């Protein structure tokens, strides 16, 4: 089931204080970006964030699920706690790589 427009707007509103937030539709789900880094997957009106050592303590009581069939387990972010949600996404952002630019690899 796809995310509702209202849910996507709500997620973006909650996380907006962190920086430039935008989404891209991918295979029926949405990818959430913060300042050019992919920080979450939005699916079925849930926010899935990568299980990463940098947020394990913050997410120790979080539900775990898969955003789509065949995906690895992810934490499900509880947006009812805005401060914690922002802290989790901010911490995760600090430890994730920027995406590689298409066509940026040079052959010698």
Structural class: alpha+beta
Order of helices and strands: HEEEEEEH
The biggest sheet amounts to:
6 strands, antiparallel
The shape, in one word, is globular
Distance between the termini: 45 Å
Strand content: 25-35%
Overall pLDDT level = 89
Task: Kindly state the number of beta strands.
Answer: 6
Based on CA atoms alone, the radius of gyration comes out at 14 Å
The share of residues in helices is 10-25%
Question: Any overview of this molecule?
Answer:
It is a single chain. With 108 residues, the chain is α+β, with helices and mostly antiparallel strands. 23% of the residues lie in helices and 29% in strands. It contains 2 helices and 6 strands. The protein has a 6-stranded antiparallel beta sheet. A hairpin with a 2-residue loop joins strand 2 and strand 3. The protein is globular. The protein starts with a helix and ends in a 13-residue tail after the last helix.
């Amino acid at each position: 089931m796809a995310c509702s427009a209202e849910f996507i707007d709500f997620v973006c509103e909650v996380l907006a204080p962190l920086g430039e937030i935008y989404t891209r539709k991918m295979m029926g789900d949405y990818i959430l970006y913060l300042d050019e880094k992919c920080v979450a997957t939005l699916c079925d009106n849930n926010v899935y964030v990568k299980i990463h050592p940098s947020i394990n303590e913050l997410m120790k009581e979080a539900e775990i699920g898969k955003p789509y069939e065949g995906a690895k387990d992810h934490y499900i972010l509880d947006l009812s706690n805005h401060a914690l949600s922002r802290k989790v996404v901010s911490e995760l952002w600090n430890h994730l790589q920027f995406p590689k630019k298409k066509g940026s690899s040079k052959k010698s």
